[in-house]
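Researcher: Quick sanity check before group meeting.
Model: Go ahead. Protein one:
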Amino acid sequence: MKKALITGITGQDGSYLAELLLHKGYEVHGIIRRASTFNTRRIDHIYHDPHNNGEKVNLHLHYGDVATSDTLLDVIYNIRPEEIYHLAAQSHVRVSFDMPEYTGDVTGLGTIRILEAIRKSSSNARFYQASSSEMFGGAKPPQNEETRFEPRSPYAAAKVYAYWVTRNYREGYNMFATNGILFNHESPRRGETFVTRKITRAVAAIKAGKQEHLYLGNLDSRRDWGYAPEYVEAMWMILQQEKPNDYVIGTGEAHTVREFLNEAFSYVDLDWNDYVKIDPRYFRPTEVDYLLADASRSRNLLKWEPRVHFHELVRIMMDADLELTGLTPPGEGKKILNERFGGWHRWESQVVSMER
């Protein structure tokens, strides 16, 4: 049984990755931050209490923080995982302008703390660094592994640092250290302050008569939006390769926030112009206008292809948020998900994990 360690296991990607690895027969370990409230809602449906007699437990949680080195070294040394997926970060781009120092510490230096823990513990673990398309910033689209980075936020700059130290440890210490440069990937488990989920939650609430308006910033930003469960499959594929490398993961299709609004509102027969208001507070000091993936390397080497595209993604997210709001969704998103995925990924785990 392979062992895998996931930082950021309680996040969107971490929860889907944990599901995938458990389905593949892994023993999964996750690092979570200590809090006075429960913060594990995305993984509650796959977590089993180790005190239950006779129940086999393959998911284990450990308190720790990527802002400190000691716990990282202890966990890696004691577990001896074959694979480490580093997903933890302060990952909200707009918030990084308000908390630049914290973002640099957690998102940037957190990566080198884990790499050092791997090196000092003499671990042979394969390492995955969650890099971001935000690193490309102002670079002309489409962007691939050879595109020059032009970060336009503290978050993006921190991710560029993490990208280069990962490559440095790969070349300097002969580590199996990789970067997955993931373009925007969304799902019903996306954090409520990210624009896609903010939109789908608001549409459901407006349809239910619980909300009057939705306040947003720049509607003209173009993004390459994919479906998160497919992207964690790519993470796993990256660590199964014979040699370490860096990979861009994306759909090769870009849409504006305005288009996302239109798709979401029209799904429930509403006109977004009647409900959306612009709030300057949501504009970034420096905007990223256009991100579009050239994922040729992933298609050729990983044989990875997206199965869910933009219009289908919106429907999946809308069905989940309508269901959470207590409404009966049209069901197109649920049908798409159940047709495209089998085994480890089910509609029930999309919604149940968010009920608390």
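Researcher: Fine. The other one?
Model: Protein two, sequence then structure:
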Amino acid sequence: MTYKVAALYQFVSLPDFRDIRDPLHAVCADLGIRGTLLLAEEGINGTVAGTEEGVDALVVELQQGPLFHGRLDNLELKFSTASDMPFGKMKVRLKKEIVTLGDPQTDPTRQVGTYVSPAEWNKLIESPDVILLDTRNNFEVEMGTFAGAVDPRIRKFSEFKDFVKKELDPSKHKKVAMFCTGGIRCEKASSYMLGQGFEEVYHLKGGILQYLEDVPEAESRWNGGCFVFDERVSLGHGLVERPEDRSPADE
């Protein structure tokens, strides 16, 4: 059996996020969905899996159902497949942030960097005046990244702001391009950098996953696999599972 996997997020005001938790969990349970969804006052984030019919029904509920009252009108969605169910159970968690940067002044609903489509990404990062940043954690970078990208050597995303303060300078780094797995970390990172005075900040629309789906392997600047936070471990071009990145214990 093949399972449909949906990675999703949206930054949106959800002052009632605590009240949404239990009914959202019930909806997922009724549809046979497993995975993790994070709810915070700033929005929703997570990855879930189930049958194609179940995942499609959940997306309709999120976008059109009574739980969110039409607020998820710009939901970022990325679909892939898994040969086995990649999650053991369903979890809906309440958080302070749907992706933790730890800077209260950073608000992606107010300002973010300029989105760049996968089709335009290669041209941007080949420009000599661009500094290319990988915003992911170091173990993710080790599995795969774009050629020429700067690895900030962070253990967790909340350390990204410290890297920026120590290593980057708005007066020197005039043009910054950044990327992450599905796009959500770049929403926070680009918003933070704009707030720190960086003038031109670009980020890959839909993240690495969208790039691997849209850009032919022969034209790709990506090397290695893209780590995903489930039992598939990593994906390659065409969002195909990479069994070579699984350890023997994973089999």
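Researcher: One line on it for the slide.
Model: The longest helix spans residues 17-30.
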